[in-house]
What we know:
The chain is mainly α. It contains 16 helices and two strands. The protein is globular, with a radius of gyration of 20 Å. It starts with a helix and ends with a helix.
Amino acid sequence: MSPTNEDQEFRMFAEQYIALVNKRIYDLLRGEPETLYRASSHLITAGGKRLRPLVLGLVAKGYGVDPSISSIAGASIEILHNFTLVHDDIMDRDEFRRGIPTTHRVYGEEMAILAGDLLFAKSYEAILSLADAGIRPENVLRIARILNWASITVAEGQALDMMLSKSIDASEEQYLEMIYKKTSALFVASAVIGAILGDADKEDLENIERCFKNAGIAFQIRDDLIGLIGDPSVTGKPILSDVREGKRTIMVIHALRSLPEEKRRFLLGVLGNREASLKDLERARELMIEAGSIKYAEDLVRKHVNISLESLERIKGIDRKVIDWIRGLIFRLAWRES
């Protein structure tokens, strides 16, 4: 089969699978009071790439699991992800996401908090419904434990993100731990849940975890790069919002340890300063480029992509065609523009 046909087959699977996931999400997010459910659906119906459920669906397909089953778990993962986004936007005081006003901007902070709480509960409702779809009770329990681990780990990662934003001397090791917990853990959970649905063996589970841990880290570093040098009209996020919020991205950490003292002091003065002018924010970006921090981050993306792909090749139980699809997806995660 030519690469073109392989790509078309992957796209057809992805479109059909995401449509299934979306239907399950919309069915779950109906109820009363209507305002609460509208608030809960606000972000999730505005778009999003559905990357985490797609990871789950691909891994499950590789083990022969029918999409009608894996899409239930995929909906759970996407709903949980959107719960984190709603609360994250409140904490970061972000006004836009996916090109639309954030949930708390439209519905107020109180309703947005409740909307997030509802999404959290609905993610577990979806997982538990796997028992009604014929999944063995012991596997439903394993999957629920993975979802619980991911929920705890993402909360720990968000806390680390907030704490690092106040740190002058945040280290690369602390950053990597933070993005593993805040972002990568949910990719790991997605892939492992897909594998559990397919009765993967212990060795495959270990390689799947390592593969998607590193793919998720590469994804977040790329996300941070997009936040610094991406086009806001494409990303849907305010320009240089991470700098204004004081996020200790790998580019910031590298620049702070590489720049001469005067430039380092300027960068520290801009980070987290919500009153900083656009000119100062752009100067902060220029300093990171000058320090070689963009190249450093891109090299780190390559490192983690390579580790991810090495682990992918060690997975024995997944259909080889699907391995090729996953490899292509990992490249898309790591080198996307938005």
